[in-house]
Amino acid sequence: MTLTEDIGNRRTFAIISHPDAGKTTLTEKLLLFGGAIQLAGEVRARGERRRARSDWMKVEQERGISVASSVMTYDWEGCTFNLLDTPGHEDFSEDTYRVLTAVDSAVMVLDAAKGIETQTRKLFEVCRLRDMPIATFVNKMDREARDPFDLLDEVEQTLALDVSPASWPIGMGRDFKGCYDLINNRLILMQAADKNIRSEGISLSGLDDPRLADYLPEDSLQTLREQVEMVRGLCKPFDLQSYLEGHLTPVFFGSALNSFGVRDLLSGLRDFAPPPRSHKAIERRIEPNEDKFSGFVFKIQANMDPKHRDRMAFVRLVSGRFKRGMKLRHVRSGKTISVHNAQLFLAQDRELAETAVAGDIIGIPNHGGYKIGDSLTEGEDIRFTGIPSFAPELMQRVRPIDPMRAKHLARALEQLAEEGAASVFKPYLGADWIVGVVGSLQFDVLAARIDTEYNIPVRFEPTELYTARWVVGDDPKLLKQFMEANRASLAEDHSGHPVYLARNSWHLNKGQDDWPDLRFLKTKQEV
Ligand code: G4P
């Protein structure tokens, strides 16, 4: 197959949802349809096995959340799908944001009884910033649900997004019978007896097809006809361009638990979701079908096996083809690296990556040296943009219980910062380190990880700090003056960038007012 054909068959996507809407269940069913797993329950089981492997993951287990995200690749009807998992808990949204920089589209899962929830909305906003196409899956139709028109209205109003139902539900809760596929004119009935069945649907010539009466009682049929007429009158017809530009979402109704609607979602992704898109670099825009390899690191997972200090850099391929043994340029350091041991992630296994194309994700095992945002190329100096670091909202001082371990702690913190698990700041004055996070649960996870993975018991202590801002200025002299005048409020982050640590909002405003020619940034683009 040519490179362009190979790339055209890739669909790299993530699922965004509020916890409990059914993301895990849907993931599992997508993998089941893709033949990547044999039985439902395996994703959860695998998660549990993985969790059991190290102590810090106990934190996540105890709290019933998933901290680590991963990649699952599977094939279905001629397409290769790369599904990037995102942690659901809001304390880990920073990780989610980065994962979203590595996908081309998203599936938004809603609980049919709840509609848009806080986390759905937040994640949606991130997708919108990137004009990402979003398909919607309204889940749990087998339970008491809200009126479908109401749900569509909510999506349209709260997200300012056009909606176009791809299917229409017939009944709900105990009376949920299935859906009418509005795109292909098929009736798809739910077979609740077997939760893993892959319903093919019954092709019809339309809602006037006399065969409908064989499957649905007259009253359901009547309601369906009326509702579909309303839908066709009220909602926009599906417009591919509008979806690709992020202005319109096709809406599928289903029940992931019953494997219902999953096939339709998959064929929707195959038919409409975008293949790998071009990416912006500082120097130029990179097209996926360029001959030469390029990619960027969007995630680093450390200590996947706590016995070995191994780290995995997850690389999204932006262009070209990867071949095992390839020599790649690590643009930040200027070094050339021969990559022999890259991994591909299947649903249940990892395997050695012999080849991969734009849109795919490979994992490069390493012992440090890769940072989030790093670019890899076949020689050209391009640096991809757009991976954010967020100003922390909570900051604590961290100290080793054994003061002799301070140096080791510094190393551990640096690694964790490179991995993106937290922001780490070294104040210019004083010996302590400050750790900044977006959600308080991250402190617990960090303490447990520093203890089990680096063998350094630590204590976190509250600080009087309010927030941090990366300080940037075009005039190096002015920046130097600022730094000399504010040493007591300044720190360096793990890459040596100056950071202003504000004690309260007044202090922050004062810094900004006193130095109008400097910029105090809330997010730092990792380049
Ligand atoms: P999440 O990853 O988005 O957090 O959600 P998850 O898939 O874990 O689903 C949350 C709960 O909703 C689970 O129940 C799951 O079984 C249930 N669920 C998912 N899809 C459907 C559906 O289509 N219909 C119905 N009725 N329920 C659904 P749980 O009791 O929390 O977990 P479990 O004990 O069933 O695993």
UniProtKB/TrEMBL annotation:
Subcellular location: Cytoplasm
The entry's keywords: Cytoplasm, GTP-binding, Nucleotide-binding, Protein biosynthesis
PROSITE patterns the UniProt entry points to: G_TR_1 (PS00301), G_TR_2 (PS51722)
Residues annotated as domain Tr-type G: 8-277
One of the GO biological process terms: regulation of translational termination
Pfam families tied to this protein: EF-G_D2, GTP_EFTU, RF3_C
Example of a GO MF term: GTPase activity
InterPro entries per record: EF-G-like_DII, EFG_III/V, G_TR_CS, P-loop_NTPase, PrfC, RF3_C, RF3_dom_3_sf, RF3_GTP-bd
UniProt function note: Increases the formation of ribosomal termination complexes and stimulates activities of RF-1 and RF-2. It binds guanine nucleotides and has strong preference for UGA stop codons. It may interact directly with the ribosome. The stimulation of RF-1 and RF-2 is significantly reduced by GTP and GDP, but not by GMP.
Family assignment from sequence similarity: Belongs to the TRAFAC class translation factor GTPase superfamily. Classic translation factor GTPase family. PrfC subfamily.
Matching HAMAP family: Rel_fac_3
Protein name: Peptide chain release factor 3
